[in-house]
Amino acid sequence: MTVSRDRFEEFLRAELSFFAQREPSPLNLQQIIHASTPSKVASLVYEELPYQFAARIKHIEALEGWNDQSELVQIREIFSESFRELRLVEPPPGNQLSADDLAEFTEVIFSLRRRHRPVVALLAEAIRNMHKRQGWINEERYNKWADIFLRSRLATEMLTSHYVAVVNPAWQPATDLDGRIGGRIGIVDTRCNPGQICQEAASQVQRSLLGSWNTHAAVEIDVHTHACSSSQEKIEFSYIPQYLFFHCQRTYEK
């Protein structure tokens, strides 16, 4: 059966409206850890990303005057194209899929990751333009809008990064920060050491500040860690190191 382009576009719009009706539920770490094989992570990404993309499109369209901001129009197009691409491909069935089995789906994931790279820069430019238009939008309301948008983008980035790490193990670090081999499930370190990551973030901030034009001496940042019981030398738990590092870095920079 042949479907006309107009009919096809109408079908995609209907799908977009359907997915946008459900606000994407927050992903939890257990879901990420469970998606430990190519089959499982492909299934999770295929099920969750359409809701994420549809919600972001709806979120943009809910902002008054969005279509007068060229950057927001571009962001909407980015998410629309990624939604379309994702709905036109799906992982092959099976519970024992290899990376080769998922080659077509993987290419779509890489494609949308490349497509989404300009989103943060476009959003920042949109923010600057909006601030120039005094009275156009309530600042408190807009800050809340932007916060929701960025948190959702973080969830999308986490999902696609985890997919890449599981399907392409070569993208995972061979060792963890303290030299341990293994302990990784995709982007999750099952023996994450928060104290060490906080220290790494502190060192990074110190190096960056030392090289700035207005800083002539090293900035001291003290990191204190405590084991949760006398029987442990350090705290370890399952977490995503790169996001903990980013959070610590932002905290120290403030």
Structural notes for this entry:
There is one protein chain. This protein is mainly alpha-helical and 254 residues long. The protein is 59% helix and 4% strand. A three-stranded antiparallel beta sheet has the order 1-2-3. The protein is flat.
What's the layout of helices and strands?
Blueprint: H1 5-20, H2 29-34, H3 38-61, H4 70-87, H5 103-115, H6 119-132, H7 139-167, E1 184-185, E2 188-192, H8 194-210, E3 237-239, H9 241-253
Antiparallel strand pairs: 1-2, 2-3
- Average per-residue pLDDT, rounded, comes to 80
Largest sheet: 3 strands, antiparallel
How far apart, in Å, are the first and last alpha carbons?
60 Å
Percent helix among the residues? 55-70%
Oligomer: single chain
Number of separate strands: 3
Number of domains: 2
Listing every helix as H and every strand as E from the N terminus to the C terminus, the arrangement reads HHHHHHHEEHEH
Task: Return the CATH topology of the largest domain.
Answer: Butyryl-CoA Dehydrogenase, subunit A, domain 3
Report Rg: 21 Å
Strand coverage percent: under 5%
Separate helix tally: 9
Please mark out the parts with pLDDT under 50 across 5 or more consecutive residues, or reply none: 177-181
Second-tier CATH architecture of the largest domain: Up-down Bundle
Strand order of the largest sheet: 1-2-3
CATH superfamily of the largest domain: Alpha-ketoacid/pyruvate dehydrogenase kinase, N-terminal domain
Q: What's the CATH C level of the largest domain?
A: Mainly Alpha
Overall geometric form:
flat
- The computed structural class is mainly alpha
